[in-house]
Amino acid sequence: MTLLKRFLRRIVYAVPGTQVLWVELNRMLGREGRRSFSGWGMVTEALPPWHDGGDDAFARDFVKVHDEVVERVAGGQIKLSQFNDVQDKVWKLRELRWRHYFVFWSARYASRAAGGSVTHLVECGVCDGLTAYFAMSAVKDSGPFRAFLYDAWEGMKTERLLDSEQSATDSYSYLSLDNTQQNLAPFKGETVFVKGFIPESFNTSEKPSTVTWLHVDLNSALPTAAALQVLFDKVSPGGIILFDDYGWGDYRDTKLAVDRFVDGQPGALLPLPTGQAMFFKH
Fold it and tell me: Which superfamily does CATH assign the domain made up of 102-281 to?
């Protein structure tokens, strides 16, 4: 049944006009009235923070940024090469709302809890810059900030993958640094783009002396462990490390690498139903 549902959802994304049929099918099955959110591997009947435009200032800020991203994607100012095979990208962005809410929430929380005169955001695995856009939007009104964005912007290499990950070789070869820079043009003055493979790329450019918020989305265990080795001690007390791949079965080795590293470290790890996990640094 799960495989069938995934197959049907791929059709919904790829074929114009099928979204309406999908909604009607759910309605006929009596599920649409109960379901308040469905997407990114999770379904819930609980009302999300952004329900009806948001009941508090934080949720309303998130809604504003989400709508801004949707508008920029629809208008071509943000080009999502990762979703080139998705016909309805606005639908996809709606599916990603819980994931992006956690990005937005964690970045703003860390900027307030960690203190410091400048908020330092670090992302390892940037792709098209979508999560970086949400993170920078979350902190831009809270004071000065800088974002250090690390990505190879080319295909994954065999020698940097475990045996269990070899099928990912050459994944993300479609990425372009130029495209990501254009997507993040509103934050041009606050971003440092570092092209190269982790951990070598940490030695090729300016690095933050402290880290307020760290996002790790490398889809592989060895670079994830290497990023933590270099950056963990720089994360300020009150800061947050957000892992993107933690709860997904396809990235089990990444989860194990994270678990091994954070075991005994000062802080607490919170797995999330989106497959993400937050580490709160003490």
Answer: Vaccinia Virus protein VP39 (3.40.50.150)
